[in-house]
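Q: Can I see a sequence and its folded structure?
A: Here is a first one.
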Amino acid sequence: MSVTIKTADEVAKMRVAGRLAAQVLEMVEEYVRPGVTTDELDRICHDFIVIQQQAIPAPLNYRGFPKSICTSVNHQVCHGIPSNKRLKKGDIVNIDITIIKDGYHGDTSKMFFIGEPSILARRLVKTTHEAMLQGIAEVRPGATLGDIGNAIQTYAEARNYSVVQEYCGHGIGREFHEEPQVLHYGNPGEGFVLREGMCFTVEPMINAGKRFIKLLPDGWTVITKDRSLSAQWEHTVLVTANSHEVLTLRQEEREDYG
């Protein structure tokens, strides 16, 4: 497995890219309302990234993906393609942002509620966020990828949710997807040992029903096989000398992370 260790200069560029990706989620929040289409959200994010940030939306034309962001609604697990379908009250939507700035990627996603969510949806979204934080808390030199996956799986399954196993986090830097693969399930002490300078995403997909999924004919959109709700959160994380640094923190999160 060829895992890149980031230099100080590369880390500085990753911090910039991560901050810009977080800013896109902060910017778009006011537009995520009943009646908006995910196509409109895509256009708003695209223009902000290209014009304001003078950056590149990484998903656009990546392996043929047709849009600048991913929008996954309700039972869509990941890689939802923005469309002319309007969001309605009670929907939940994951907006996944990846930007390229000065050759380096920043990757993050957030769940949004459209109007007032159901109790089930609120609990799922909250648990998924907390599961991601449990995984990130394990990141330090000498820990393993299995430690991260086990923390996420244990937290989610203890609350009667299931973890999607076919999609995972990934190394990130000059490339959108680098080694290693960061599974959101596993056993403590197993897998690749973390080293200072590694950079990767932690992005659990948690289902309210069973973990099984299906890929739609568009070749991108993944849904839950039983049509149960699914939620996902994502951060880009750097392994530091003694712990970790989250590179994609939004302003609303900074107090939680100090």
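Q: Show me another, different protein.
A: A second, unrelated one:
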Amino acid sequence: MISVIIPTFNEEENIAQCLVSLSHQTVARTTYEVIVVDGGSKDRTCEIARKYADRVFTQTSRKVGGARNDGIDAAKGDIVATTDADCILPPSWIADLMKDFDDPAVAQVYGPVYPIEDSIGNRFSLLLANTFSRIGYYSRTFYYTLGCNTAFRKDAFLRAGKYRCIDAGDDLEIALRMLDQGKIRFDGRLKVGFSMRRYKQYGTFKSLYEWIYIVSHGGETQKYSYTQKKYK
């Protein structure tokens, strides 16, 4: 079984389309479970999520990484996958992950993203991200993994020490530790729709600068906050 973990916070506008995309997979619904871990939403996020997810509960650990950890701790599957509440998953996402983990040496799998809000600027921004993902993978120098489109062998993830509970960069840092657990595979078929709403509202360069600043300072800083942003 594959367990899909989705952290949420005030996502009533987006969570349904994410969960519907997970409901329309090419494999039987009994082969995977969906777990929503909420960060204390004040809107209808949890009410909507309960219509589709197998489990919905409130996180007890800090930050997005902590929410993912809580979900993975509760997961029944020996493979655990993570995505975001404002993403759209392709119909073959679960099936392709299953094929990737047929290789017992694989410990982590990740894939590319495309912009849900289509524009030349958004395409270019994610083209850069996807290029970094591929260059890092094929050069074996770094692994530009994203929490919205990655999966782990659960026992390897637990041995690696789980996600760090930090403000940004937890999804990149975990790959460094997963290298000790087995192979990391990039799968270009795993194309996930990624919302650009943060960049639209707060500006691409400002958002990227804040993210880089936080990551370069160890994942947390008093100067900027990257999680639980308010969107119009």
